[in-house]
Amino acid sequence: MQPIAQVEGRFTDVDGRYAIVVGRFNHHVVDSLVEGAVDALVRHGVSEENIDLIHVPGAWELPLAVKRALTFLEPDAVIALGAVIRGGTPHFEYVAGECNSGIGRLQLEFDTPVANGVLTVNSIEQAIERAGTKAGNKGTEAAMAAMEMVSLLRQLSGGIQVGGDQ
């Protein structure tokens, strides 16, 4: 019986060009996400010269800027970072929903990983927890996901060898 072919991303072949698109709204939280993402990329061998940092007003504007980054910078991956914190109006649902669906569509349209590090939380406390305290740093996690997908897609582009070293 043939062994099952397996392929997964590695963190040893992730050098390339990365764009980080950041919503400035709630910057007191988002700045920590950016620090986590940049740190993760650099720690895994991505040169700072290969990281483009693009700031937009907020999460609503992220999909358009991500699309432009994908079109004109042609990065290996994009990392979208922001924070949408629930308030007393339905505004949260519209912004969070459209931001997330726009990012998801672009990933498929451009066949390029777009890691979603946009926090959608109920309170400022939850946002702070996800920006580097109790719940880890979601910016770091988004960068790790982006790198893993870059590695995985590179392997898939080269073909999977059944039973071979992966």
UniProtKB/TrEMBL annotation:
5-amino-6-(D-ribitylamino)uracil binds at residues 25, 59-61, 83-85, 116. Pathway: Cofactor biosynthesis; riboflavin biosynthesis; riboflavin from 2-hydroxy-3-oxobutyl phosphate and 5-amino-6-(D-ribitylamino)uracil: step 1/2. It catalyses: (2S)-2-hydroxy-3-oxobutyl phosphate + 5-amino-6-(D-ribitylamino)uracil = 6,7-dimethyl-8-(1-D-ribityl)lumazine + phosphate + 2 H2O + H(+). Belongs to the DMRL synthase family. This is 6,7-dimethyl-8-ribityllumazine synthase. It comes from the Bacteria. It is an enzyme of class 2 (transferase). The gene is ribE. Forms an icosahedral capsid composed of 60 subunits, arranged as a dodecamer of pentamers. (2S)-2-hydroxy-3-oxobutyl phosphate binds at residues 88-89, 130. HAMAP family: Lumazine_synth (MF_00178). One of its GO terms (molecular function) is 6,7-dimethyl-8-ribityllumazine synthase activity. The active site is at 91 (proton donor). Keywords: Riboflavin biosynthesis, Transferase. Its EC number is 2.5.1.78. Gene3D superfamilies: Lumazine/riboflavin synthase. Catalyzes the formation of 6,7-dimethyl-8-ribityllumazine by condensation of 5-amino-6-(D-ribitylamino)uracil with 3,4-dihydroxy-2-butanone 4-phosphate. This is the penultimate step in the biosynthesis of riboflavin. NCBIfam families: lumazine-synth, PRK00061.1-4.
